[in-house]
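User:
Care to share a sequence and structure tokens?

Assistant:
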Amino acid sequence: MSVFPFVYRFASLLLAVAGCAVLSLGLVGCESAPTKISAAALAKRKREVVRYDSLRADSVARAGGQLPGAILPDARIVAFYGNPLHKAMGILGQYPKDEMLRRLDRRVAVWQQTDSLPVRPALHMTAVIAQRDSGADGKYRLALPDSTIRRMVAVAQERNMLVFLDVQVGLSDLQHELPQLKKYLQLPFVHLGIDPEFSMKSGRRPGTEVGEFDAADINYARQFLARIVSENQLPPKVLVVHRFRQDMVTNYQNIRLDPRVQIVMHMDGWGTPKVKRSSYRKFIRQEPVEYTGFKIFLKNDLRANSRLMTSEEVAALTPSPLYIQYQ
């Protein structure tokens, strides 16, 4: 960090900007209240923080370095995916909380023995879910109740785990959906997932065809997270982008990197080990962005008398996935 000493001149700005923002969630506390300032002064200080933190990020990127607190590539994330209100969406909601957590602990232990990388357990929850019904606004998506999100965030905080909030926009878009999750993303252990499969730019109902995100959509999510990191002086966020077909992500070469946001292109397809390796090679390895992920479907991967890939087989992929998800 000594390469960028100028950044620390602006640390005093952060006290008034970040304050105790997360206190409103009832998840963490502060010993003292931030100094009261006018709305105009607060907005000015936020702009200054973002500007100087952006300069720091640019300097780090040019130097090929990382910001303090970055999870990747020095650890591997192992996550359970799903919706706590719907058993069919994944293992996260398939079992009572304590049993689900015990199963996650067992998976984490397996990965700890796979190689030398430390493992960070995570809960990956669908916070905005694509729907077959249009809903009142015709956007074919439904957000989880705040009470459900808060409950899972509290579980993760208590156990020192990561949380990923996953967004399926339907006929909406990230510009409308991500701001609704900002209060959670301001927490240092909460990260983001976005699912092109249910981004229906064609206007058709989710589930009738596979959707897509363009690089511009992914860049928007990156910029949204980067601003949260700067305004709240957080460690870098992780952005997981699902993918199992080439046309799910267009213009991948235009995705821009920022050390405040670590982008994971996540192989999200099910099938035999041979099919999954092929998909990883064609859609993840051949169109590289930054880091990679790999999903194990605990049921669908067993179709046609197949088997689950072992942790050793997944870790041996090139590049070795640093985000592992079980559904």
About this structure: The first strand starts at residue 76 and ends at 82. The CA atoms of residues 72 and 322 lie 7 Å apart.
